[in-house]
């Protein structure tokens, strides 16, 4: 339990630091840049505490680092220099002079709570003795690999598509985007289910399934598909046609084929 409290303190410290940085910048979008790195911080904090007992699942912190550094690096390249995300800009406009305090709790502290909850398989799974490789180890690694490929390749294909001015207002429907409207979100989904499977492979408890369930709900129904598609339907005339033809989340053949 003390390790969970240590990580809660580390996450809270990170969120307050990012909030303080956001004040002079007038940009709370920076929270998105440290989302992946926050989990890396939790993983290695857990590792540092657990290594003292000699019981550590080495694979989890390494895979979390690959995922988190890639995600934060991609978001930094995509977002830095483009101003505050319009979701946060709208919140700032509505809250007025109270926004700095409002943002502390509704953006930074709230995401910190989500981060602590979602990272439970890491906090509890890393301080375990993995012993010999087992079926869960191979399955979890494979699911994670599928996820990181979908997420990284999907992001790369989208970035390349957007870099061409001729594609403004058009819909990306090639590559992985031909089989799912959100390959990057599906990839993130797989990554977190992979982390959970690896956690139980090392001896972690099954109840930490709460983590991938929460992440799946956010990706499919809260801050992922549902929120993004509301905007895409308005900004891209042919998006409705794309919806009729292509799976929203889980990959599958286009319906016209």
Automatic annotation (TrEMBL):
Signal peptide: none
Domain of life, per lineage: Bacteria
Pfam family, one: DUF1295
Spans through the membrane: 6-23, 30-52, 58-77, 98-119, 131-153, 209-228
GO cellular component assignments: membrane
Keyword Mitochondrion assigned: no
Record InterPro entries: UstE-like
PANTHER family: 3-OXO-5-ALPHA-STEROID 4-DEHYDROGENASE, STEROID 5-ALPHA REDUCTASE C-TERMINAL DOMAIN-CONTAINING PROTEIN
Stated name of the protein: 3-oxo-5-alpha-steroid 4-dehydrogenase
Organism classification: Bacteria, Pseudomonadati, Planctomycetota, Planctomycetia, Planctomycetales
């Amino acid at each position: 339990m003390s390790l969970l409290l240590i990580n809660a303190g580390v996450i809270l410290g990170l969120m307050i630091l990012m909030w303080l940085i956001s004040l002079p910048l007038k940009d709370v979008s920076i929270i998105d840049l440290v989302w992946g790195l926050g989990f890396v911080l939790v993983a290695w904090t857990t590792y540092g505490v657990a290594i003292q007992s000699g019981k550590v699942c080495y694979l989890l912190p390494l895979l979390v680092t690959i995922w988190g550094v890639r995600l934060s690096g991609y978001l930094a390249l995509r977002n830095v220099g483009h101003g505050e995300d319009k979701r946060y800009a709208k919140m700032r406009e509505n809250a007025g002079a109270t926004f700095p305090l409002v943002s502390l709790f509704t953006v930074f502290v709230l995401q910190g709570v989500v981060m602590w909850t979602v990272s439970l398989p890491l906090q509890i799974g890393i301080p375990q003795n993995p012993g010999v490789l087992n079926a869960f180890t191979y399955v979890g690694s494979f699911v994670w690999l599928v996820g990181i490929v979908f997420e990284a390749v999907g992001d790369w294909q989208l970035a390349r598509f957007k870099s061409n001015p001729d594609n403004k207002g058009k819909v990306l429907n090639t590559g992985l985007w031909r089989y799912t409207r959100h390959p990057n979100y599906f990839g993130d989904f797989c990554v977190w289910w992979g982390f959970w499977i690896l956690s139980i492979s090392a001896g972690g408890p099954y109840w930490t399934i709460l983590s991938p369930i929460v992440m799946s709900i956010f990706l499919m129904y809260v801050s992922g598909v549902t929120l993004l598609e509301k905007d895409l339907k308005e900004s891209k005339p042919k998006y409705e046609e794309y919806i009729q033809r292509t799976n929203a989340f889980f990959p599958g053949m286009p319906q016209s084929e």
